[in-house]
Prior knowledge:
Number of domains: 1
Low-confidence stretches: none
Number of helices: 3
Order of helices and strands: HHH
Oligomer: single chain
Number of strands: 0
Structural class: mainly alpha
Mean pLDDT: 91
Shape: elongated
Helix content: 55-70%
Strand content: under 5%
Largest sheet: none
Amino acid sequence: MMSILVTPQNEQEEKVLIAFLESLHYHYETEASNLKEYTLEVEKANLEIENGDFLLQEEVEKLILQRRNAINGR
């Protein structure tokens, strides 16, 4: 499947383009819908941090080292 990025020159072109896509029942996303999704992900991450659900850099490095050692049979 191919994705196409289109940048309308003005509000009228945007309305025409959206009407065309909807008339053919095409799925499309706007920057606003992507922004909403991104904002929700950031809010969720902030809640996880507030609840202490995160790893420190040192803990991540330790886990990576343990995994490498397990793969290499050490």
